[in-house]
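Review form for a predicted model. The reviewer records the input and the model, then writes brief findings.
Reviewer: anonymous (R2)
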Amino acid sequence: MPAPEARPATGPLHGFRIGVTASRKAEEQIGLLERRGAEVTWAPVLRTGVASAEDEALRAATAGVLAEPVDLLVATTGVGMKAWLAAAEQWGMLPALRTRLDQAEIIARGPKTVGALRAGGLRELWSPDSECFEDVLAHLRGRDLAGRRIVVQEHGQSLSMVAHALRRQGAEVQVVTVYRVEAAPDPAATFHLVDLVADQALDAVTFTAAPAVKAFLEAAEATGRHEEVLEAFRTEVVAASVGPVTASALQPLGVPTVWPTRSRLAAMVTMIERELPSRRSGVAFEVCGGHLLRVLGDRVLVDGEEARLTPAPQAVLRALLARPGHVVGRAELLRALPSGTAGSEHAVEMAVARLRGAIGPDAVQTVVKRGYRLALA
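Model under review:
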């Protein structure tokens, strides 16, 4: 990686220290942050890449796809689909693969995947607005899949459990792994980043892949600083994710995680550009009921008086504050609750009730069948 360009003395992120865990597109991400004035510490916790025509496992998987008719294709990433089709073209298999997949019902996880499919001459039948893989599974969960042959193009996170879940519905599932994920050749940078987070010497850490979250937490476990890292993320250090799939690796641990509406690198940096300065000076909202809500680190003030929040309602508030005024689903709020909390929607309802008791009964609005949102005045 070339030497970073000089960091400007001013900018919206001047004075903020941000850790970057990505290997793919790291130079682009670091450049975006440094041009805004941030001080960046880079620790590529994993080495990732897409398979090529030299990948015999991918070639064998492609031959397996061609062996029998495919009823349904679940395409999960644009980069993965492009790499798969490019490799198939080099093997001389592309026409047969395109024909086979064109005869299938195609579900795409998000717009980049849709774009890759259409560029490859394929057309999706359905794609979720959320770009969230859980919504893809929910779409399939209520269907009769008995005897159906499903091909899942795997993204950076292993989808073996997804395959098992679909098989329980009676489907025959083949997972095509296009990504290759390996441990970083030198873990020293990762251990250093773990120490910085545990010591609360950073303002934020960015994650662009769920396996990177897992690898980072494993490094924290290996150094004996796992609990310190989680506590730092729950209080002082912002865990910034490129999207909900990556965020889902942290939320079950009670870590408030922020991510942009669109799962894009530039959108994540723009979100950080807004998020960090507002946290340093304190986030202030006027909420329904005429109350002024201000958040200063882990302190919450209502009309100037400190509101005492236990971990569960505080986690709900953090999740709502990540997208003020927007609906946050019950499932997402449940994942945001601290570990050890009863795993049911009733736990979410109890946390919301306690939050309303602390900041005002009208401050959190219920949106029927969808979830909750912070009711801004």
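Findings: The chain has three domains: 17-45+184-277, 50-171, 282-374.
Further findings: The two ends are 48 Å apart (CA to CA).
Recommendation: see findings above.
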